Amino acid sequence: MSAVAQGSALLHFSRNGAYGAGGAELLVLERGEGAYVFDTHGNRYVDGLSSLYCAQIGYSFGEEMGAVAAKQLQELAFNTMWGTAHPGALELAERLAGLAPDPINKVFFTSGGSESVEAAIKLARQYHAFNGQPERRKAIARKTSYHGVTLGALSLTGVPAYKDAFGPPAFPVRHVSNTNPFRSEVQGEELTRKLLAELEAAILDEGPDTISLISAEPVQNAGGCFVPPPGYWAGLRELANRYGILLHADEVITGFGRIGEYFAVERYGATPDLITVAKGLTSAYAPMGAVLVSDKVAAPFYEENRTLLHGITFGGHPLSAAIALKNLEIFEREGVLENVNAREDGLQARLQTLKDEFTIVGDVRGAGFFWALEFVKDESGARLDADERERLLRGYMPKAMLDNGLIARADDRGDAVMQIAPPLISDDAVLDEIVEKMRTILRGAQDVVLG
Q: CA torsion, points 179, 184, 190, 193, in degrees to nearest 10?
């Protein structure tokens, strides 16, 4: 595979000019097996990122997935959910409603994560309009959060660099502090009180009767796997109830086992009004997303002469629905959630050894199979500057990871981090391999940072 193999493709979220003659060789993957993927040269990589948090069950279920896909395509290749339905989507909706916490019992299908968040925004806005509050058009989200790239989802996203090129947001969003404990002067319940006080002040400042929804990930991805402090999600629920605001849990990444539950928000003690999902819903064997909707939010859409004014052509696609149902069957049969919960503490302990060994690792944080290391200059915890981040995260790390057969993420949407999110079927041998490869990479990273 030559260095110009990018050809006519525009790569997503990539420096496209970095590939080609005189530049980096494009990684082209052609095969997967278990927790591993193989490139066109035959090189093997452990997929420590689950192909961007998607490949929950890894790469060894293609035969089963192919069989259900073939059967579905022979029976009914396509049908929309625009005033019609098909058995697979109806069965999947019932299955998801049964897995979700009560009273979340309705499902709106989409093609992916950004579409799910976009749909949740519109459902919330129309819900308030039906209830005589059309002025509830604003939202509250968190700084550094990532909720997608369509213009509505981008409005919620709290990463200015992703937004500035596209002009004013599609609708007003107030961004409040995220739950990063490493950069906070207070911890635990005191941090919870501080964050909730800031949120309530933002609600009052904007005007409670103008706010449609509060959006948050149970564990925030951008910035590096920020877990919530004790009582935080219960506090979000209480504030939403007090001010008539809908609570949205964005579980595009955390849903379907990444944190050891089908829906991670259940671990943190609250039931939202809307849950957005994608990625792990099919373990990426086909594209699919959904918004899970509470009975309260869904009720106005069932009233006479009212129309839900949103639709996605491929939402609930028969092929994707069949694969999602098979994915859920495999989850149960293979004990996927049980595997994550049984190995979570061990994975954390392995990662902690890296913090103990390397001065540049200032923090280890995360949950389930979703973890980040934050890089710092020295034992003081000082942040890396822009030049240091460029040299480390975009200069050294990408090549070092591939040279060592590891797919992971080096990121600085907030502070500089390295993230891993192994396939949920990973055993101890795979987790050991990931951490040992990280250790090798960090030896060189420490040299880059410390000079």
A: -50
pLDDT single digits (tens) 104-132: 999 999 999 999 999 999 999 999 999 99
Regions of the chain where pLDDT drops below 70 = 1-6
Query: Against a cut of 0.90, is the pTM above it?
Result: yes
Nearest to 20 by CA among 37, 34, 3, 44: 3
Give strand pairing partners of 172. Answer: none
Report the DSSP pairing between strands 138-142 and 211-216: parallel
